[in-house]
Structures are given as C-alpha cells and as structure tokens.
Amino acid sequence: MIAYFLRRVLHMIPVFLGVTCVTFVLMNLTPGDPAEIMLRGTSGVQPSPEAIDAAREAMGLNDPVYKQYAAWLWRVVHLDLGRSYSSNLPVWQELTDRLPATLLLGMWALAAMLAISLPLGIGSALYPHSWVDRLARIVAMLSISMPGYWLGLLLVYYGSVKLKLFPVMGMDGFRSVVLPALTLGIGMAGNYIRVIRSGLLDVLGTSYIKAARAKGLQESLVIGRHAAVNALLPVMTMLGINIGGLLGGSVIVETIFSWPGIGKFAVDAIFKKDFIVIQGYVLLMAVFVVSVNLAVDLCYRMIDPRIRLR
C-alpha cells in the first residue's frame, strides 16, 4: 500500500501542472486588464495610461505568459502563492481565512444529504413497490431535476421571506447555515438514494445473504453487517467525488447566500481579474480533490480486503 500511495502522489504532479497551466492561459485570454481594474478600485476613476503601464510593469504583466507562469510556479515551489492584486494581502492568508466557512458548509451539507438519502435509499430497497419506495423515487427525481440556484432561491423565499425562520444571507450562528446546507444536501441526495437502493437490492439477492438468513441471524444484523457494508463501495466513490466537489461546487450557493467562503471569494476574484487569487484557488481545489480521491481508494482496501491496489 505504501508503494501505491507514493506512486499516486507522484502522479499528482502532472495533474497540478496541467490544471494550473490551463487556468493561467485561459485567464490571460479573457478580456480586461488586471492593472486597470486594480487602479480603478472602488472609486470608479479611470487611471491614466502611464499609471496603468507602471502597474503592469510592477505586476509583471508585460512579460510573456510562459514567463509569468514560470515565475508563479517558482513561488509556489517555495510555498508562496503571491499577493492579491485587489487587497495586496497574501493569497494563502485570504484562502485560509475563508476555508473554515466552506468546510463548515460542506460538513452540514453532507449531514443533510445522508439524513435524507440513507433512510430513503435503505427503506426503498427493503420495501420495494411500497409507499416508501414511491416516496424515495419522487424525492430522487426532484433532487436530480432541480437546479441548485433555483432550489436556493426557493428556500430563501419560503424559509426567510415568508416564514422568517432563517437569515437571508451571511454567516451568523447555526440558523444561517441551514438553508445553504439544505440547498447542497438536497441537490446531492437524489443520486445517493438511487445508488443505495440499487446497490442494496443487488446485495440482498446474493447467496450469502440468503445463507445468513437461513442460519437464523437477526434481520438487522444481516442488513447492517453483511448487506450494507458490501453495498457501500459505490457510495464511497460518490462521496469522494462530492466531497472534493463541495469546495468548488458550492460557488453558486455561497454567492446566493453571501456565504463568506472561498467559493464566493473566487467569484469576486474572477470579476476583478485577480489572476493570483484564481491560480491559488485552482491549485487548492486540485490538491483537495486529488487527495480526497486518493483517500477513497485507500478506504476501498479497508472496506473490502479482496480489493488489490495496483
């Protein structure tokens, strides 16, 4: 397992290089001048061409794109993500200050998703063609069909405007996390309901489950220790994808609810053409996604010893 882990770590290097290189080139192809946007700031006063040229020279924007990328990569090797063009603060500090808010939102979103999908998925598999099964299918269909931004606005309208139970935006106590976490959790629950149901139905039809029941084992023991564990692998795969995607995929939800996480911070940086912030954000997302997927692969071996890591 150690050799497999080291090989996977080495494979991360070209992934990081490819992701950051493509992002750097695309950002340089988009219209707009970061120096002009930085000098204009919030005042809206158009800076002079001389001031723009001086700022571009100081920021290194007059160099060819490959030189800019090489200079940024050299700083990253020395654990320096640079300074934000708009705030002049270290990018690492800006990201780490906002990362806990995004992690908090992702944790509660996963909790909401599991609270919805586990009982409905297991109940649908144990009682097919019952009212539980029909309810699970309806919830799964609605979850998959509803766009995240529409669901978020719907929850804001009913939960905040009509019922006045939750704050509309911002991060202030537990009530403020309920609506954004539900938006993300409900959006993910549909796929999990379907995967849990189909996986559990397949396992319940196997011979060793029939043998366990024939031995007189309690149904709760058959389902919990034998069936559920063996139906867990596809759910683990989806969890790895979703946990990695929660940081980047919560951008829309964080924008709707003005949640002070790194997703909203990245959206603001895109409008400001803050290349350094965007590059740091992309690198952090790449590290997180690849690391989570590696952890999921290693967990496969722990769940099912028959799996060999190659």
Automatic annotation (TrEMBL):
A UniProt-annotated Pfam family: BPD_transp_1
Family matches, as Gene3D superfamilies: MetI-like
InterPro entries noted in UniProt: BPD_transp_1_N (IPR045621), MetI-like (IPR000515), MetI-like_sf (IPR035906), Opp2B (IPR050045)
Name of the protein described by the UniProt record: Nickel import system permease protein NikB
Keywords assigned by UniProt, alphabetized: Cell membrane, Ion transport, Membrane, Nickel, Nickel transport, Transmembrane, Transmembrane helix, Transport
Database matches in NCBIfam families: Opp2B
Annotated organism of origin: Paenibacillus elgii
Sequence intervals crossing the membrane: 12-30, 105-127, 139-161, 173-193, 231-256, 276-300
Family designation: Belongs to the binding-protein-dependent transport system permease family. OppBC subfamily.
Subunit details: The complex is composed of two ATP-binding proteins (NikD and NikE), two transmembrane proteins (NikB and NikC) and a solute-binding protein (NikA).
Recorded GO MF terms: nickel cation transmembrane transporter activity
